[in-house]
Amino acid sequence: MLAQMHDEFRNSDSFRKGGYGRKVSAREAKKKKVVFCGIEVPETLSWHDWELGRETIKHLTLRNVHGKTQKLSYRAPSTPFFFTVFPQPITLSPGMSVSLPVVFRPSEKRDYEDNILLKKAEGEFSVTLHAMLPRFCLSVPAAVQLPVCAVHSATEAAFPVCNVGDLASIFTWETSSPFSVDPDRGTLNPGAVCMVKVIFQPKVAGVHYAAATCWFGGEVKQKRTIMLKALAKYPCLCVNVTGKKSEDVQSEKFQDVLCFGSVPVGTTVEKSVEIFNMSVVEAPCEIKRAEEPLRGYVFSCDVSHDVVPAKGKLVLWIRFQPQVVGEHSTDYFTITSAGCHLKTVLKVVGSCKGPSVSLHQHSVDFDWISLGESLMRTLKISNTSDVPAYYQFDIDCKGSVFSLDRPCGVLEGGTTLTLKVTFRPAHPMSYHRRVACLVHHQEPLYVDFFGTCHSDTAKPATLHKRHLSWYRTNMVRGLTFYPPDILGEMLKDGKLQMDEKGALMLPPEISEDQPPKEYFEPNAMAEYFFDGVSSELALFPAHVSVSPREYDFGCCMPLHKAKSLSLCVTNHTKGSIIVAWTPSDGSAFQVRPEICDMLPLKSSTFHVFFRPTQVSSLYAAELEGFAVYKVMRHYNNIENDATICPSWCLTVRLRAHTYEAKQEHMIPQYILDIPKSFPPVVCDNDTHCSMLLSNTSTSLITFSVNQTACPSVLVKPSLGHVIPGGHQIFFLSTHPVNTVLQQHVLPLELNSYPAYTKEIVLQSCGQSLLLLLEGDGILYFKPLHIGTSSTRMYTIKNCTRLPIDFTWKIQQSDSKILSVSPTAGVLQPYETMAQNQYVDLGNVLVGDQKSYSIVLLNDGICTLNYILIVEQLFTGPHDPEEVCSDLLALELEHSRGTIPARSKAFVRVKVRPARRLRYTWRIRYDNCTPRAAGLAKSKEKKQFLCCIAVTGVYPTLCITDACTIGTARGNSKMHIWKLFSLDTLNEYLARDPTPGELTYKVPTRHSTCLIPPVYTPLLLDFDFGSAPVGSKPTVVMLLLENKGVVPVDWAFLFPSDQKMDIERWAEDVDFTPQELHQMRIQDNQLFSVSPKSGTLLPGQEKSVRLSHRHDFIGTDRLPVLLKISYGHEILLTFSGVTVEHNQRYVHFASTKHVFAPIAVGRSQPPTQIYKLYNGGSMPVTFEVQLDNIVKIQEKNFQHPVFACLTPRGEIPPGESGHIGWIFSPLEAKTYTVDVLIQILEGDSTQITFQGVGYNPNIVEEAATSRQFFCSALIPGSAKLTMPGQAATLSHHRICLGNIPDCTKACRLVFLNNISKTKAVVFTWQMNCKEMVLEIVPESGVAQPGESIPCFITLQPTRNPYFCRINLVCEVYIQESLVQYERDLREWEKEKERQAVEFTITEKDLEPKKKLTSVVRALKTLHQLSLAQETAASVDKEHSLGKPRQLSRGHETLIC
């Protein structure tokens, strides 16, 4: 029966509508079930998401989980909202189940509850029925435990937030520091889960608890609270230099010095240090190298931030890459834990070693050989260092009589190389050439090659090593400029003698008993550079010289046209010489004549011919020539061996190429080893370095260094070539004169092609010897008993990059009681670290304060009673008598106290600067420990403790640019600058504020009346000019810039912004006319400022928009206070004039005009211009009353001191009129005249004209004109850009200065299209009748991002003239202009059509009314046409609009 009823119920409509056929939801499947006497049954049936008027069915399932058949009955729900099938007995076999449908039918929106009672013989059980309204409910855990964290670090944990309610909910988290939640807000749909992250960022150690509250729900907010727990600990970092192995890290003695030892130059060595974290928390740390701009960056570390794991370590790799051989480098790395509470300094040291190359012999003697023969000798070169050495003999073996088999190469460490040197002479004469052996990273070495060649007819004296030694001694004694025959005669006559070494010398009676000079081997670098060619300096004067020493033939095409070079050889000796050039077979360079005789003190010209054989090739060579005294041709001419003089070698470096003009040259393949900087050197001394160019290709490389581009650096060689697979060693020299870091850029051109130019960048800096002594040079010893001793450690620091030799010198009187160990030594650069006893607190606002704690340390074993003494010093422009009465600007928390033995104390100091000066306080202390009775008190010197410095500053603000839009766009930038008195404003803002201005340091409402009191001495006018009523507002844009070092808070305060809010009954209802006037202006917002306030950081800029609305006729004046917090306050009077449409009005910016100063006695004074601005909408006619001018002329002997060239004129609306004046003074004084300017049908205004005559013999004319016209305050280039602006000008002011008559002055201005997508059309508008002005181009199109150069040429007339010309460049967006012209043509076409075409729409007209209807129709059509025309005009104006013009924001002022 129950089954049948159950089936009928299933087939009912209510069953199907209620959704009974759906599957059991996951929520229902998870319902909690219980077992009642063998029957499994759910505890509760719940209804969610139900609706009124709709039945919802759920099933109550009963299952027999017992092994026997069960019988039970039930009772239906008692309320009418829940019902089920009629109750009847139920029998369930084992494992069987039955479902009772329960229907819920709500009648109102509320919660419902009922139950179904199940009965068995053993007892009863109730199943609860719930129908709940949709509600908000979030589930969160009760507490979250975060991992342990280091102070100033961060850790995090996540927990789920579940929406267990029925509605989507917005949640918001609230928590307190040091905890934060991410995300802190969001939305959760029903059943959704969001993982929320808790971030823990502690700043102090300890256990941290905080409650995080989650707010959720609808109109009525609910909350869930979760407890957050975390532990913060301080990290402990220790630095250990690797190399020692220890199992127990804690017991290991940590080191803080990393030594790299000696490292080969140009190589990189890495070493590691270990940073141990002794704490149980991860420790973030920062690794920072000491900042020292003059120190070489040879030490580096790639890691700047990292995290050391808890109870772990971080391996830090540090690289050392030395650049200067022999330099000892020291640097410091600071390892700082998070929060900077623990700092560890790691000292790194290392030295640089380079090659050590030496020659086994310094000369190679070839004795003599016959012409046509050759002789070979050996030369050994060794490298005793373990660093490979690049060497190169500075000789072109192909074109020399001396050649080496391996002139360049690499000498490995600890090896010796035997070179073969071949002597192959070309002429019968003696040969000598001193050849430099260049070594990379080492000074050059020198070797002398010499030999003699005999022929059948010429047998010169054989040259030996002793002759070279005698020659050098004779050279320093000034005797080698005489030929051997003359020297021999002087020996015979007794005018010369021979010393014990065999060299020549003057007799003692001639040398006035002065000892003869001796030859000393010069410094290798000095000998290499000071040859009289690379440098103007020469160690020894040249006997024979050749010019030029280097030459580039350039392009030599076509091949059949040979190019030639004239070589000038000069004989500086007093004897005849022979010059012979070494022939080079197969070379493209040939010298003619090959051999030539030269008379004493004469010059001869040789010709070098270049005959190339291949096109598209590079050519380079070194020409070699020898000059020798003519008397040396035969040994019979030499009577004394000591008079033999060796030959002098002449060399010329050449290069050329045969590439076509537009042909690309061969690409060089090379490796260039360049140092970053020159080695350190004391100021005003030479420093040198080397550079290596390796040719890695199979072709020749030619090079040339343009020394004129960087004259501060000498390079040798500056022209030459590198053979394939070879290399070239360069030596560079500079002479720093001060300690300022200098950067040198040398262009190195390869293969005669400018595109293959490599810029070599080096730095140099002179070093001044600086030694820092600990304790400001004062060392204190504690008192001792007689016969005992005390030892103190004292630190000195080398603060330069140079090693310093130091020696302690003790006075004789103190040597018995004082000794120092070591007494002498070498202090390497940055060898020690000294404690900082100087504290700079930076910039502090005047009147503000800043705090700092100084540490007092008592290292003794006794308690110390101290007194602190402060000395105040000032730096900067100030009046000593005025500042001497100032109070001490440093306040000590306590000036005396007691420090126990081996303890330290903190003293808090507060600084409060009272002036804009540099304050320095020297703090000293005095020991005031009580002494035993009967002991005399000795006079003790106050000990220096520390020095504290601070700079008092004011907030600094200035106006850097101004422009206008709206009705004032016709005004020039200079006119706006004058109307707003911006010169005076900027000048005042640069001064110190007065005490009255600091009455209220920040903007505040302090006034009880409508007109606030004024505390500033400066009152300025902001004149907005004039315009007709109803015109567009006058808008002025000002650019404010903070050029100071502290942030600036500024505000424009209207009177209403300064008035306090008081009760109505307390206000005075009797307003003055001035108050009513200001109230009208403020209520109608005739003046506005946007933004009215703001903050500018140092160097930051902000544009401010000032506007005046022309809504009411009359003059509007409003006092506005410009207030700078902790600085100036300036009263600005905003003023503007609004005139009627039919009123004739000229706006005068000032009633006084000053002419440019004119020299007395000038025959033709220049014409000067006075401008009038028509601020109305009607043309005006002006007349200048000349009565007072005539009186001035009569007083000055009928001389026209003031002459008006334009006594009458007309000014169009919105434009400026010019009145020409000539000021011609008779005396050096100031002239003044009052002139009445009458406006016809308008007001008249009296203007005071003033001019100054000066004596041209005292004051220069250029100075006066430059001062009058070129104000430095008006910006030359615009910084302000308007919204929608498409182009800018590079210059907005061009100052041409004084231009001679009938000459041209030309300047270049760029028009920049700042749009990235749109082209612009520009047109220059010129309105200058007096001047001849030319602009090229006058118009054009600028593509997106393009810059158009515009040349402006000014040519004055024949009369002298002071000119100020405003040029306007109108700019249109090309796309908008084309569209406007297209729409204008369509509108005009439509207008013509409507003028001749009309349509009558009336029907069934009676004959009587036909004429009337036609007349009415014509009249109606005429009105319609006018209306359409007007509408079209309005549409043209508003929808099409005039093309955008960049107005006066794109004007250029020429003065």
C-alpha termini separation? 116 Å
Radius of gyration: 50 Å
Number of helices: 15
Class per helix and strand makeup: mainly beta
Major beta sheet summary: 6 strands, mixed
> Helix coverage percent of residues?
10-25%
Number of E-state strands:
99
Query: Average pLDDT across residues?
Result: 81
Précis, in short:
This protein has 15 helices and 99 strands.
Topology record:
Layout (H helix, E strand, L loop, with lengths): L1 H9 L2 H5 L8 H4 L3 E4 L2 E4 L1 E4 L8 E9 L5 E6 L6 E2 L6 E3 L4 E8 L7 E8 L4 E8 L6 E2 L3 E3 L3 E2 L4 E9 L5 E6 L4 E4 L2 E4 L4 E8 L5 E12 L3 E13 L3 E5 L15 E8 L4 E9 L5 E7 L9 E2 L4 E4 L4 E8 L7 E10 L5 E11 L3 E3 L3 E8 L4 E9 L5 E5 L8 E3 L3 E4 L3 E9 L6 E10 L2 E13 L10 H12 L7 H9 L4 E2 L5 E2 L18 H6 L14 E4 L2 E6 L7 E9 L5 E5 L7 E4 L2 E4 L4 E8 L7 E12 L18 E10 L12 E4 L7 E2 L4 E9 L5 E5 L7 E4 L2 E4 L4 E8 L7 E9 L6 E8 L1 E2 L3 E3 L22 E3 L5 E4 L16 E4 L10 E8 L4 E9 L5 E12 L4 H4 L6 E3 L3 E4 L3 E9 L6 E10 L15 E11 L4 E9 L6 H7 ...
Parallel strand pairs: 3-10, 12-20, 13-20, 22-29, 31-38, 42-49, 51-59, 64-71, 73-80, 82-90, 83-90, 92-99
Antiparallel strand pairs: 1-2, 2-4, 4-8, 5-7, 5-9, 6-8, 9-10, 11-14, 14-18, 15-17, 15-19, 16-18, 19-20, 21-23, 23-27, 24-26, 24-28, 25-27, 28-29, 30-32, 32-36, 33-35, 33-37, 34-36, 37-38, 39-40, 41-43, 43-47, 44-46, 44-48, 45-47, 48-49, 50-52, 52-56, 53-55, 53-57, 54-56, 57-58, 60-61, 62-63, ...
Helix pairs in contact: 14-15
